[in-house]
Amino acid sequence: MMDNEKSSMTDADEKNSGIDAEDNKIQKRKLDKYGLYTVILLIFFATAIVVISLYMHSKLKEVNKDGTKYKYHFAFISKSEDSYTANHIYEEARNYGKQHGVYVEKLKTGSGTDYTDDDYVRMAAAMQVDGIILEGSDEEELKAAIDEATEGEIPTITLLSDCPGSRKSFIEIGDYNLGREYARTIINITKTRKPKVVVFVDEEAEGTERLLDGIRITLANEGNHLNVDMQIVDVAGLANFRLSDLAKVTLTDKYERPDILICVNEHDTKIVYQAVRDYNLVGNAQIIGYGVSDSLLKAVRDEEIAALIDVDAGQLGMVCVDALVNYKNHGSVSDYIIVDDTVITKDNVERYLDED
Q1: Contacts of 236-240 spanning 24+ positions with Cβ under 8 A
Q2: Alpha-carbon distance values, 134 to 113, 122, 141 (Å)
Q3: I need a labelling partner for 40 at 20 to 30 A (CA). Which of 58, 89, 92, 282 fits?
Q4: Structural contact between residues 243 and 271, judged by C-beta atoms closer than 8 angstroms
Q5: pLDDT category, 109, cuts 50, 70, 90?
């Protein structure tokens, strides 16, 4: 009898175990089903968030801060906040872009920050702008940042100075053409048949040889009635006070000093002009400089500087915007684009002062 009872208990246990196993299977199926539902819901919410974000991004891209609709958002990054030329180019690009459905935003607006140009390029990429306008350099970190932006399908164009690599286009003032303008200005302002000309250059800078060729060839062709004595002085790497002293020495000796002194970048022009003022050397030689700023423009107006040569900022600003728009619309743009330069003298300086 006890055997029968044990047998009955065993049968009951097996039955209960079977029920428990079935219950476990049912519970597992329920959990699996809930897990599947949870995954589906998470995927749905994630997809919804992405769609909403893309929708909001597209709507935000339709209106800029002024309430004006625009199609593209470009970032503008320059080397220096103090460069009149770069600031002028930005203003022209911004105004031109606004008329053509493009919002051009200047990223480098603060002073005294530790951010580098490559930091700003990465910031622009993180903002998911449609393109970057950049005053380039040959720094490896900047090249790497441009490469990263390119991999993210954000095209970069450089202006004034290049950063070879994955940038889509370099917009420049042609160095040879710039040399021609210097030569023509020499011809126009010289007061002697045999002028002595000193040119301060950075011989290591890209484009210097082409610029000097432009001066020499134009003087030979268009200034062949003059017997120009041109001396090239390498000022590469000179500290500001060294360059100032060199300008003083060059302009002080009345037997050796030049009739015309040329500077081929904005930095050197400012240092030399300040030296001329500090050492009371105004009038010792005619100065042809590069770049424009308020003080340099006033120096031209007051006839302390004979002429300034600068990039046509209006044209360059428009070309920057057009180049990126063409790339966005058609997937290609010219590797190099050359824009015109302009010569500022006492005859037209008031127009630039009014613009400033």
Answers
A1: 236/202, 236/203, 236/204, 236/205, 237/202, 240/271
A2: 18, 12, 14
A3: 58
A4: yes
A5: low
